[in-house]
Amino acid sequence: MRGKVVLFYPAYEGPPLSAPLCLLSLASTLRAADFEVVIVDAAIVPDWKSLVLKEAADALCLGVSLLTGPMIHGAIEIATAAKGLYPKLPVIFGGWHPSLLPDETLNEAFVDAVVRGQGELTLLAVAEALANGRSIEAVHGLSCKSDGRKQHNPERRVQRLESLPTPAFDLVDFDAYERACGLRKLAYATSVGCPYACNYCTDMVFYKRRFNALPAERVADELAALVVRYRIEEVALLDSNFPVDIHRALDIARGIADSGVKFRWTFQASTDFLCRMSEDEVRLLGKSGVSHMGFGTESTSEDVLKLMNKRHQRVNEMFETARKAELAGIRVTFNLIFGYPGETEADRIITFRTMSDIARQFHNVSFSPNIFTPYPGIPIWPQLRALGVYEPKSLVEWMNMPLGANLLPWLQGNELARLQRMLDYFLLNSEVCRTRESYPLLRRGVRRMVQAPVRWRLRSSRYFFPWELWLARATERVASRRSLVTGQELPKQTASAC
Fold first, then answer.
1. Which residues are bridge partners to 212 per DSSP?
2. Other C-beta atoms within 10 Å of 222: how many?
3. What pLDDT, in 10s, does the model give residues 6-39?
4. C-alpha 319, offset from chain centre
5. Which of 58, 113, 347, 478 has the smallest CB count inside 10 Å?
6. pLDDT at residue 497 above 60?
7. Could you give the residue ranges of the DSSP H alpha helices within 362-394?
């Protein structure tokens, strides 16, 4: 072995989806070059700090991957401890947050370098330099410190996914993840990137609207083999927009169906791509095991969709997506964003009414409403600053930003309270629409009692004396946020997609 690299993944709120795919991808490239790799995921290792520090004693470097939000706390804690114990150990941050804010991340004394964007070959180049006693200052795709000054080296050319080895799934303790989340899951990516340029999305900044995908045959063969080898029940695709290449997506589904290996799988998409598929093609998705699809529909107001730069999003396609998915027996989650700059109450009413209509017609649809959250690097930050939104200036400030809470100056007081009341009635209505005879008698009775008045509230936008909410809350709990990847309920404040 040429040396050891320790990779750490801080914990996020809620149960883990599966092993961190980003670290498994880094590990496979490093191991192919004869480096030893140790992965520590705080989600399943109770004493993760002690284990990381023990393994780091003879390591070439410590790599930490993180998203914006609560994961930053664990990243800061381990990096500070490692630097205190091993001052000369290179600590390298990577992942979405450091890649979007490399200069800001390098301001921290405990960070020596930042791997920007696609990290497999960049981290490999860092490990090779350290193993050979060379400086890492010339590595492309890296931001680092040189004589106390920050430097951002040239971008590394993006590699086609098919040129990279399969992630190191053999390093995963699937039993531990099953104990943590109650299901034997696998996180997998068939592609990265999305061709659209939504103004609120970090994906377009990170991947620059380039769609980079594995061949369909490789995906189908790998998934079938992994499911059998590790007894996987469900595969969660982490693709930003899985069916961008519709023929490829259908070839994957066909390959999985033809393999004879049975498992559930889920993905995210945009409604326009789904609507380009015929009913039989969507049924093929269901036949292959697709159990859930998540869609970033965000709003049904044409004015708001234009503000978001979502001109590809059409309201009629939302109905058509729900209809075709129902024919195929596939659950659907529509994500909604409220409080976007420029949105009015009239825009919100349009969205609530349209989505309530969808809920009434199609019982396979759930909703995940969110208050707009300004993530780092998104294109509309100049507008947000002008509107008085405070932009965090350090890792600590981003860590303390309560994701999912309202930080918008234009959405406060009575207006915020009214929006929350509208959200509560909307979610209750969507649950009422799914009443089944299998539900307990009391639950069915309450739902039928409130059905007509709840619909009247949404049509008339009158929300005084909310007796229906009080009654419903006494008998059941309504999910307020759901994962677009799996459709599962999420904690109220989280940066993950579990």
1. 192
2. 16
3. 999 999 887 888 999 999 999 999 999 999 999 9
4. 24
5. 58
6. no
7. 381-386
- Six token digits for residue 153: 């080296």
Number of H helices, E strands in the chain: 20, 15
Mean pLDDT confidence for 161-187: 95
For position 440, what pLDDT does the model report? 67
Closest to 187 measured CA to CA, from 9, 30, 325, 435: 9
The terminus-to-terminus CA distance of the chain in angstroms comes to 35
Quote the tokens at residue 335: 């994500």
Q: Which helix (H) or strand (E) holds 403?
A: none
Backbone angles phi, psi at 465, to 5 degrees: 40, 75
Cα separation, 284 vs 178, in Å, equals: 29
> Cα–Cα distance between 68 and 495 in angstroms, integer?
7
Structural domain spans, the chain: 183-372+408-473
Alpha-carbon dihedral angle through residues 471, 477, 479, 480, given to the nearest 10 degrees: 50
Q: Beta 142-146 vs 149-152: how paired, if at all?
A: antiparallel
Residue in the structure block whose two tokens are 């969205």: 351
pLDDT tens profile 194-215: 999 999 999 888 888 999 999 9
Residues 183-372+408-473, CATH architecture? Alpha-Beta Horseshoe (3.80)
**In angstroms, what CA-CA distances link 204 with 182, 199, 239, 296?**
33, 9, 13, 14
Are 151 and 144 in contact by the 8 Å Cβ rule? The answer is yes
